[in-house]
């Protein structure tokens, strides 16, 4: 199948890099976002998200005229839906954005088009939710137009590289739909493109993120056991991972972000009776911030009125995304204990968050602190030398929740350091 023009619905962390990458490969792309602020920002040469290398690709795509942005879709050869699928408070998948993006395509859908859903979705979404909406056009999915599910699998921080290099799975509602999807992504994907059916592709995505969640849950549980038995979990994991069939992930503050902390719930919702392990892992990871609070309490005893500098607010190192961030949760827990926390996030230095005291520099955060807590292993913090921090802060107690400050360098430098999972 040939593609001259495609329409990408959703210009967030996935849609914008995808739209710009297609444009960079000579395809005419219309990028659509319902948020007019996003469209305005892009039109004015701005960027609403931080991702390494993205600015260059977006600027080039817009300047060349290959990418245009709008709040409304247009007729195209292919439509890609890359909108968020968050969850409600009760952890059920919120499919409203997928539903409305699909409805928005409906008036522009023509015989011979391809529609691809990329948003992470509960099993059978493509056939049970997307296809029936599109078939209101009078066209039949898999016969009159192609319909496929192709999950994004890129890692925030490395999106542009992974978009092209990762293997890509394309699940069609028919083998012909999968083939059409293959033809589309072959425009820029250098990794292997694997064709399957739509529901398998949906499951693959959910299985991948769930596997990671379960793996992190066991690492978090081991960190608690390490505290109990007086061993160093970081050393133990490093040794265990030398076994050829073992690959533990790392413990930490818990699992944040918009993907791994959300996606396993889609499987739980779809089959609560079949998912006890997945549910327990989610609970273990969600309870890790509270465990971290206990660790801090064991180190400091009385948290009331303690002046604490919290380093990092994002959900993981070297990204600006604050969604579902366990670092923010730990700070709220400390505040409930009466601590006065001053937080600094280098990737969003000016950020204002309800109920949080944030400052725009490391210096400001630590200058008056009694305790410094390393919450996110951003390079800026990881690369700090103990002598630099000694000069910036009167605090002599450090809490390292993610093993960012190695024992050798830091423990003999004049600080009293407490680490998660270390004796
Ligand atoms: N984390 C740990 N320990 C680890 C690794 C991560 O506690 O050893 C924590 C992080 O600090 C973070 C959370 O887990 O809070 C998730 O981070 P991540 O780097 O594991 O994953 P995401 O959410 O940034 O991206 C994942 C990726 N999925 C997999 O690796 C299977 C990515 O490929 C997906 O495209 C993305 O989810 C997505 O969009 O679904």
What does this structure look like?
The chain is globular. The chain has 423 residues and is α/β, with parallel strands linked by helices. It has helices spanning 15-24, 36-43, 54-64, 96-105, 125-134, 159-165, 175-185, 198-229, 233-240, 263-270, 276-286, 288-300, 326-336, 362-366, 379-382, 386-392, 407-410; strands at residues 5-9, 28-32, 67-70, 78-81, 114-117, 146-149, 168-172, 193-197, 307-311, 340-344, 357-359, 371-374, 397-400, 416-419. The chain has an eight-stranded mixed beta sheet, sandwiched between helices. Helix 8 (198-229) packs across helix 10 (263-270). The N and C termini lie far apart (60 Å). The structure holds ligand SAJ. Ligand SAJ binds at residues 120, 152-156, 208-209, 212, 216, 249-250, 252, 255-257, 259-260, 315-316.
Average pLDDT reading: 96
CATH superfamily of the largest domain: NAD(P)-binding Rossmann-like Domain
What low-confidence regions span 5 or more consecutive residues with pLDDT below 50? none
Quaternary class: single chain
Query: SS-based structural class?
Result: alpha/beta
Main sheet record: 8 strands, mixed
What bound compounds does this protein have? ligand SAJ
CATH topology of the largest domain: the name is: Rossmann fold
The total number of structural domains is 2
Work out the radius of gyration.
23 Å
Helix amount, in percent? 40-55%
Tell me the distance between the termini.
60 Å
Strand order of the largest sheet: 3-2-1-4-5-6-7-8
Total of DSSP H or I helical runs spanning 4+ residues:
17
CATH class of the largest domain: Alpha Beta
